[in-house]
């Protein structure tokens, strides 16, 4: 249920095990169709982090090559700048690649390859509920969707041996479960009101060194960025710069081209350069109020033969760029679960246990930062232990500007290649403190 990134990854994994995989997706899907109702965020920046990129190439080889042929950028360390307040984070040996690409193109490339598998099909339909026998899911109720994307016909039922919820952050699965007498996974929300604005600009071909580039800038609250907390510039297909500005709470980055360029003028020079060409697509704004996760591991009475993946399980503050890579990691959990001789006649507790490790790690990174900001804004008294953890994180962040080892550890956690616990290593903290020359005391 759901034919976006998480649903397609799950379909790819299921295709190794099932005789037939059917993806139900209500939206009309045409290559590079642009905005579609079910994925309103698809006009915003979508960088595929190294963890997600690795999985894409493992399961769907050739996506990167075609993406590059179409003009997307595969950005290695020499073409990627991550910076704090305009100061680049320290470089280190080796390095990882991320894909700078428009979201509709990436989704289209993945979808074309997954649906080209002989036993995978995409059906235009909206799932409306589940069917069960003896405590196990054995079918999906759905309504075929017409050309206008709305249900036009009677409800039907598709028999299924195994069902995956990939319906995104607004998934109705919890309500269906409750209505049907099963346990509802607990919903956890963390206020993180983010305002995105993304625009596309012509990219002059004269700047050869900028032909493949991803730039991510973080700004601390005292930086004179005019309320922009994060800015990114990706060199993507169509000879374009995709530029994103993000502000928290009441800070809404430019909505018009003039406001957008004026905001970029206050940022490091690359943003002025990236927005100097003609607009190829106007500014598109997007607001998200919270991060949320559903705790399937704590839900005792779930039906068998049912799992959930992607944003339907956890949807984070998007500035961390974790969503698509998380979806890939959830699919890898599904592959392990099925390969490990899963008992399909009991609830998929083992799958949800594997997935929780991935979700906890991603949540630690994104919710940790958001909780600190919320507490600071509300003047909340925080326990000593949390205060010390945050102080250690500040040390590490500051040291990423000068120390290659600290920068590597931080990047690998940010890129979802290592568990956040790697940053709790006392050696890393010692290095960070030495690099910062003990200028901050706990
Ligand atoms: C502003 C913003 C920026 C982001 N930037 C990044 C980034 O840089 N990098 C990154 O990795 N991630 C990013 N993300 C996250 C990313 O968009 C998602 O994590 C990713 O799309 C995976 O989501 P999904 O497939 O689980 O759900 P979605 O992409 O939300 O898709 C849900 C799908 O379910 C379908 N559906 C809904 N209801 C039904 C139903 N009843 N029956 C059948 N189908 C249904 C929808 O039509 C849709 O196709 C960003 C998100 C936002 C909001």
UniProtKB/TrEMBL annotation:
The lineage of its organism: Bacteria, Bacillati, Actinomycetota, Actinomycetes, Kitasatosporales. InterPro entries: FAD-bd, FAD/NAD-bd_sf, Flavin-dep_Halogenase_NPB. Pfam families: FAD_binding_3 (PF01494). This is FAD-dependent monooxygenase. Belongs to the flavin-dependent halogenase family. Bacterial tryptophan halogenase subfamily. Residues 2-339 form the FAD-binding domain. Keywords: Monooxygenase, Oxidoreductase. The keyword Amino-acid biosynthesis does not apply. GO terms for molecular function: monooxygenase activity. It comes from the Bacteria. Transmembrane segments: none annotated. The keyword Transcription does not apply. PANTHER family: FAD-BINDING DOMAIN-CONTAINING PROTEIN (PTHR43747:SF5), FAD-BINDING PROTEIN (PTHR43747). Coiled coil: none annotated. It comes from Streptomyces griseoaurantiacus.
